Amino acid sequence: MRLLIIGELEGQIGAATKIARGRGAKVTQAANIDAALTALRNGQGADLVMIEAKADIAKLITMLESERITVPVIACGVQSDSATAVKAIRAGAKEYIPLPPDEELIAAVLEAITEESHAVIHASAAMKRILDLSEQVAGSEANILITGESGTGKEIIARYIHRKSKRAGNSFISVNCAAIPEALLESELFGHEKGAFTGAVARRIGKFEEANNGTLLLDEISEMDIRLQAKLLRAIQEHEIDRVGGTRPVKVNLRIVATSNRDLQQEARKGTFREDLYFRLNVINIHLPPLRDRKEDIAPIGAYFIEKYAKANGMPQRKLSTVGLEKLMRYSWPGNVRELENIMHRAVLLATGDEISPEAITLPNMPAEGPAAGAASTPGPSGKNELVGRTVESVERDLILDTLNYCLGNRTHAANILGISIRTLRNKLKQYGDEGLLSAEEKRA
């Protein structure tokens, strides 16, 4: 756990820092927001940022977003200042920690961040074999390709491998190749020099340098443009990268773990993925089976998400009823574990009795069974005649927006259910926004 403190390490903030260090966090400090951004640009990564609530949190969040730096922000402030707490949360802070610091509260926040990345919950023999194989190869320096449908937990397995490797004490850096526009991905991976292109206001260290001596996860690598694949291949072969606008190569030492929900051999035959890069990445292959083929995992994973979202929403803890579990077991789970998470989140919010019953569990093509869930169900066409007279574009738009609504705004999950890439979904939503067809809430999703 890497914690970045923004502000002076004095008084109550200093006490919070000591507690975090005592819980195993690696703590660094930046005097102000600009210094923090400089540190993050220069490759000093962070899993969590802690900042005083009276600081300009909105500025920090805006700057992080503009530079595509993804890290949760926690605000700290005096216990009685509720107005400041509300302002911090509205500005984008994930949590508010009152001062003076409570040791158990800070420990819980650190544990939640760690658990989010590290939880490997399973009961099936198939997943046990996956974990055994992962642990067996983790000690090597071989590149690893993790394959499987979207939502099966490929990133979780990648993090598990890192924790079991000799590089565990160093950084684990993840890049979602599908979520970053093609024009920006090279800079994201290899970094850039100041003035290299419009908007390059300062030197930025790329993910390769940030992951030096650690592990770099290239998530959904099949989405990478084939022209950039050549530069990636060279970086892997030569253990060096060239920053965009740079004049000399930079040596790096890291392990590559890549994931894909596509058959890369087939993509290579189609000419959309370099075969030589495939062989470089596929030294070890770990294939994750879909959730429908390991249904023994549904109960423990479902229970984990129920507990997680009950805590997050201040809801009472409820167990999944026997008939509720039976309903889950009958479903085919095209969105896999990610879809199960979404459905359990929704069920926690809709449940009313002592247990989570089938009435609170809304599945696609399986309507809610009672009034409690009826209001939250996504309406669908009642018959084929409703489509007659409509254009393909309008039907497609409604399908995309209804699916995104069903997924509570989770674009990755929605894209998986729709059978399209995240990039395609993002482009469609941008098109709808430009055409004035999105509500303010849909634009924020």
Short précis:
This protein has helices spanning 11-22, 33-41, 57-66, 82-91, 103-118, 125-138, 154-164, 182-190, 207-210, 226-238, 264-270, 275-281, 298-312, 322-330, 336-350, 371-374, 392-406, 411-418, 422-434, 440-444, and strands at residues 2-6, 26-30, 48-52, 73-78, 95-99, 144-147, 172-176, 215-219, 240-241, 250-251, 255-260, 284-287, 319-320, 355-356.
Rg, Cα atoms, Å:
23 Å
Structural class given helices, strands, pairing?
alpha/beta
Q: What's the overall geometry?
A: globular
Q: Overall mean pLDDT score?
A: 84
The neighbouring-strand order within the major sheet is 2-1-3-4-5
Helix count equals 20
Total DSSP E strands: 14
* Amount of beta strand: 5-15%
Record the SSE blueprint:
Layout: E1 2-6, H1 11-22, E2 26-30, H2 33-41, E3 48-52, H3 57-66, E4 73-78, H4 82-91, E5 95-99, H5 103-118, H6 125-138, E6 144-147, H7 154-164, E7 172-176, H8 182-190, H9 207-210, E8 215-219, H10 226-238, E9 240-241, E10 250-251, E11 255-260, H11 264-270, H12 275-281, E12 284-287, H13 298-312, E13 319-320, H14 322-330, H15 336-350, E14 355-356, H16 371-374, H17 392-406, H18 411-418, H19 422-434, H20 440-444
Parallel strand pairs: 1-2, 1-3, 3-4, 4-5, 6-11, 6-12, 7-8, 8-11, 13-14
Antiparallel strand pairs: 9-10
